[in-house]
Amino acid sequence: MAQPNIYEQHLDQTRANHTALSPLSYLERTALIYPDYPALVYGYRRQNWLETYDRCRQLASALHQRGIGKGDTVSIIAANIPEMYEAHFGIPMTGAVLNAINTRLDAPIVAFILQHAEAKVLMVDPESSGVVKEALTQFDSSNLLVIDIEDDSFDGGEKLGSLTYDVLLAEGDPAFDWSLPADEWDAITLNYTSGTTGNPKGVVYHHRGAALNATSNILTWGMPQHSVYLWTLPMFHCNGWCFPWTMAANAGVSVCLRAVRDEPIYRAFREEKVTHFCGAPIVLNMLANAPDEMKVFDHQIKVMTAGAPPPAAVIANMEGMGVEVTHVYGLTETYGPSVVCAWKDEWNEHPAEDRAALKVRQGVKYLALSGLMVADPETLEPVPADGETMGEIFMQGNIVMKGYLKNPEATDKAFKGGWFASGDLGVMHPDGYVALKDRSKDIIISGGENISSVEVEDILYKHPAVMEAAVVARPDDKWGETPCAFVELKPGKEATDDEIIAFCRDHMAHFKAPKTVVFGSLPKTSTGKIQKFVLRDQARAL
């Protein structure tokens, strides 16, 4: 039997030389070193890092006293407000798993998520109280502890729970003796994403991946310490691309913003001296098309964008205003951004139009991603790096999810030969930069949000006049992509496109409803399968 080599003898892993990676440690460190530095800004509300750390410990303590611990799910549905930020630390400090729910979902999907996640606690922002109230009637929620978040700046909503967030915090101890996870592979968050079926899949993140991508954001973007970050990207979306934890590591300032509108964004630029923000191309397009008198700021601002590939014209418009654009790509399954169009100084010599065309490419792997390839989805053989041959994009590394919650079949399907199959199609350029060419078959990315075409089709088939329906993505300058429905009506039945769209809006979240309806027979294979690739070509040509 082979003897251990010299580096395997009495050089063991111990408490002295090994600690589980977790972004929770970033908050503790920053509160210790920069206790009086600003951490959160929300209107008139200001919190420093020590206050934020104390409140997170109080939240953890109160939940712990109520029996919440490892393996439990605590859900929250809220806008980008301080309580949502605090949940990213206070909940996992108990060992529990944070489930941040998309505020744009309809009641049946919210009910599904709460049941599938086996949520023990639900925190509710007043703005989401209406949809949550309806969701709670759709299953036995008698054992679910509902907590109301109060917000003086929001006019409306109703209380649904047995206590408020502040009352819960008052139950907790700001000196709560929490601990890092024993294993960095432990789950930290649960995020639901649209899949190729109507019901969303629960993507599970671990502490290690969250810690690595949080710091990778800083290094990839070149963020100086104490940066000022504006929350235009929803914190429910891939945990805000890990930026709640990034800002704790950065010891920076999170400027919270409930509504993403041009005027308050430009005001935050000026008054809070925002240095960084993230958002889908639709946010950039909104800012680029705002009135000129609004576009007043006198310092460098950087934006990170992802979702549907941003039009080159939008990038050019933003950079023309003095906002430096970094284009990234990723999925919920990869903790948000995992590929970046890493910029090279020599590209600055190109004309503005050419620079924008270069930035449209998705790019190269993030520092925390160990593998990226474009390959044949069946053989996993990499395609030629010619910028023309299409293949599926595959990722590998610490910022790939643990898997899908309670869905082993979907997990096994996503992991092929040691790689995560993105389901997205792209090309590899000769310089090693990936460019996305088409989305996966059934997912539409509209305004940065995933929409399942199957879910929309299910609603369309419920219309009394619809015989067959198929939904694909239609390119859109504002939203990136929008759902385009191809509908064949039953003989003798009539319906207008406005009626079809209104029917969908009455039965699902409005942003998921088709923006375009095309009537006619649907192209099919010899076996009767609808040829969606034909419909995609038609949608592009509209």
From TrEMBL:
<keyword id="KW-0276">Fatty acid metabolism</keyword>
<keyword id="KW-0460">Magnesium</keyword>
<comment type="subunit">
    <text>Homodimer.</text>
</comment>
<dbReference type="InterPro" id="IPR025110">
    <property type="entry name" value="AMP-bd_C"/>
</dbReference>
<dbReference type="GO" id="GO:0006631">
    <property type="term" value="P:fatty acid metabolic process"/>
</dbReference>
<dbReference type="InterPro" id="IPR020845">
    <property type="entry name" value="AMP-binding_CS"/>
</dbReference>
<keyword id="KW-0443">Lipid metabolism</keyword>
<dbReference type="GO" id="GO:0016874">
    <property type="term" value="F:ligase activity"/>
</dbReference>
<keyword id="KW-0436">Ligase</keyword>
<dbReference type="Pfam" id="PF13193">
    <property type="entry name" value="AMP-binding_C"/>
</dbReference>
<dbReference type="GO" id="GO:0046872">
    <property type="term" value="F:metal ion binding"/>
</dbReference>
<protein>
    <recommendedName>
        <fullName>3-methylmercaptopropionyl-CoA ligase</fullName>
        <ecNumber>6.2.1.44</ecNumber>
    </recommendedName>
</protein>
<dbReference type="Pfam" id="PF00501">
    <property type="entry name" value="AMP-binding"/>
</dbReference>
<feature type="domain" description="AMP-binding enzyme C-terminal">
    <location>
        <begin position="455"/>
        <end position="529"/>
    </location>
</feature>
<comment type="similarity">
    <text>Belongs to the ATP-dependent AMP-binding enzyme family.</text>
</comment>
<dbReference type="InterPro" id="IPR000873">
    <property type="entry name" value="AMP-dep_synth/lig_dom"/>
</dbReference>
<dbReference type="InterPro" id="IPR042099">
    <property type="entry name" value="ANL_N_sf"/>
</dbReference>
<feature type="domain" description="AMP-dependent synthetase/ligase">
    <location>
        <begin position="27"/>
        <end position="405"/>
    </location>
</feature>
<dbReference type="InterPro" id="IPR045851">
    <property type="entry name" value="AMP-bd_C_sf"/>
</dbReference>
<keyword id="KW-0479">Metal-binding</keyword>
